[in-house]
Amino acid sequence: MQTSSSTHGLPVRLDAMVGRREEVSLIRRLLQTSTRLVTITGTAGVGKSRVAIAAADSLRRSVAGVWYVDVRGRGPDVALAIAQELRVDPRDDTLGAVIAAIADEDALLLVDDADEAVPETSAVIDALLLACPGVRAIVTSREPPSSAAQALVAVGPFAHRDLTASSDAVRLFAERAAAGDALFSVDDSTLPDVIAICEATSGVPLAIELAAAQLQFMDVRTLARRISDQLDTLEPAAAESRSLRTAVEDSWERCTDAERRVWSDLSVLAPGWDLDLGEAMARLSTGTRRDASAALKQLIRRSVVHRRRVEGDVRYELLPALREFGAERAVHPHDAQRHFVSCMLLRLHDAEDAWFGNRQREILRRLRGDIANIRRAVSTTAALGDTDRAVEVAVTGWRQAWILHGSGDEVSTWLGTAFASGRPSPFWAAQGHALRAAVFGQTGKPGLARRELALAGAALEEVAAGADREAARECAVIVRSAAEAVDTDDRRALDLLRTLMDELGEDAYRFGRTNTPQRLAARLHALGLRAEGTRVDDDITERALVVGDRFERSFALTARASACAVAGEYETTEADAREALVVKRGLGNGLGVAQSLELLADVARERADPARGATLLGAAAARWRDAGAIRADYPPYFHDRATTERALRRRLGPEAFDRAFAYGAALSEEESIDFALHGVVESRTRTGIPSAARTPELTPREAQVASLVADGASNKAIARQLFVSIRTVETHVQNALVKLGLRSRTELAIWHREQTPRT
């Protein structure tokens, strides 16, 4: 048999492949080194076959032959399928005949769509690779074969967040749409709808291609409106084409009954859940944690559950078509919905109860990832008509889940959704309306705040008339705390807070729904009673240190720094704001970082260091942006940023200010903290070095300092050589970095060497 320098049926597509260069390059690199088996996995419709074929095609010149075998629909005899494609007479021993035919070949075997025969494929490939040292293989399957020698390459959906016209998902839609309608193009008028479609499909290529084909029947705006119903909307335009529903049904049929039940239960969740929540949901059907974990792992293995990494955390989701299909097949959907809400309430109560301790980083990270499912829990209970539970979800852990992530306005919106679903009990009415009043009061909506406070007061009267004294006390504290937040009379509000502190005693420091001590300190500072306000801040800080509480400590430091800035005591402002940043590092409280950065920008303004100040303001703006928050003007936690910005812009000039601000806005949270604490950002890689053609002009002193930096001199050595202070050197370095758009002394040194003529 002559197989050398031959290619057996490698499919040829007329349409070009979009994206996937990294995956194809990785597979080629693996197979050109010591790896002999690469298994490509991924959910239905993600493009595994397309990637495998492209990778095999890229290796044509590296091997004598490429053999393609599609085993879909050919039963469990994988060896026979390979023999047929290679035109090998199987005789009695099919596998032996294949081995005999290719034992001396230097070739690549691509076994495509092995989902129906995973264990058989594994056994055959292992035997072939063992007996044929020159053969390498690629296998595609939603579920990877259990070969120990394989390298797994997971093909995921295209990126589908923060899309632009050049994103792979948008490019794929545009190319496939143009194939069906030559007049269609992605421009300013169609781009928003195309992005909405690509986001709704979660970047799954098959779904995007099927969506693009629908433009033969409807316009892009109509398609964007209907795309949420993917299984029915995204039917193939041609009868012979594969539908999204068929692809998902294939996955469903390969699951056990237990896995299908878990799949349906997981369809209740919004994307981005963690393993603990997934296992908690799975226990509804499986009963035990062990069985729940096993079922969930199988769904991950079968590429039903998609795994992705978000800011260092692993999160999971059912992609839209899989989620829609699971919901369709649910036997008891309301049971799953109620169980889901119970799971979310457990997590929220845990966050609230464990807040004042050493678990704050974990709590904030978890709740930041949970926010979509907290929203889902409110809307789910509201749809079920369970108003009390809807309010309970919104209110429980509100400070950790909503406020600290910049979502104060949003929690009031969700409370409105809860109240619209029915009439809550007096207990939850008092809590929900009180929280809404506080949020409205702190975001400049006094009329709405007073209305909500009146509703909370009426509900409190009903609770007080009942027999549950503990419930009445809890509601009274929350309603009175809301009254303080709404009150614009600082003196009256201060009296109320002092009364609350006396009544709560030690509980004031543990009852997270009121944060009474922090608000007491704020009112004291606002009234100019700094000594007493500082004592409260110090008390909060000391208690936080005892229990390992990082957030409340940093919060108190920021509040104290703000009060000192108002009083013009900038040395203390800088010390407290810097310490707050050190404590906040890695905590995941971007809004708190933003507050400290703005305070340090004000310090820079006062010290006539406008480049540093503008950079810090840009970094602070990015933290607000990342949190999705609107910057509220609520003294003393937020100083007068507008005044600081005007002064810096006037001192630096509009162009230089905008350049410095943009530099700061491009920093990550960690980089912005590094900049605030150390004056520079040490980048691992050289990026953004300006060329001579676009280099802004440095002052003679800045150029002199840059030259010394390039020579390896420290700031201290430069200061000694130029007879200036270290602080002055730091300012020159920073000004040079800002003007050049650089991020570190290393980049400045590289830039200077590139500008210096070689001799």
From TrEMBL:
Q: Which Enzyme Commission numbers does its entry carry?
A: 2.7.11.1
Entry's Gene Ontology BP terms? regulation of DNA-templated transcription
Q: Name one GO molecular function term.
A: DNA binding
Keyword Kinase attached: yes
Q: Which UniProt keywords apply?
A: Kinase, Serine/threonine-protein kinase, Transferase
The answer to whether keyword Kinase applies is yes
Q: Which InterPro entries match?
A: P-loop_NTPase, Sig_transdc_resp-reg_C-effctor, Tscrpt_reg_LuxR_C, WH-like_DNA-bd_sf
- Describe the location of the HTH luxR-type domain by residue ranges: 691-756
- What domain of life? Bacteria
Primary enzyme class: transferase
According to its UniProt record, what is one Pfam family this protein matches? GerE
PANTHER family named among the record's database cross-references: HTH-TYPE TRANSCRIPTIONAL REGULATOR RV0890C-RELATED, REGULATOR-RELATED
What is the name of the protein in this document?
Answer: Non-specific serine/threonine protein kinase
